[in-house]
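Subject: Tripartite tricarboxylate transporter TctB family protein

B.,
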Amino acid sequence: MKMKAKTTGRSGLILPGILVLLGIYLAVGIITMDVPDGAKQPGPTFFPILITIAIFVIAALLTVQLIRNPEPVPADRQGYRSYSDWKTVALVAAGFLAFALLLVPAGWLISASLLFWTVAFALGSKNRARDLGIALVFASVIQLAFGAALGLNLPSGILEGLIG
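Prediction pasted inline below.
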């Protein structure tokens, strides 16, 4: 019976476990990445390393929080605690699918802006014009960071002659 008391309210530990698996997958990808000899510093592994470190740190912090403060178990276990918003999930998934299909023909700037705008819309933002502007700025900054800082070119697509 003591074992049950220690594990009660800790189902949230699944998320840090998934994050650790994702971090391991990314770490293996970074280690096996073919880096060209002439790559500029900090190189193409810089951002993936930062993201992987952040994933492991977030997983560790979530684990500590969930162990120290387990989720309270409701007295009435009959009802649902939450629900799934399938409309939002479907919109975000459609945004990722459109991004994947449009990346090469339309280019990074257009496909990433569409993805960022779609996610903002799916999560309930009402100011569509502002969201599109922020999405364009965000996608542009990422394109500049990859081009200028890392020496990597993201796909230009139909904007081939204008950017890149």
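The chain has a mean pLDDT of 83.

T.
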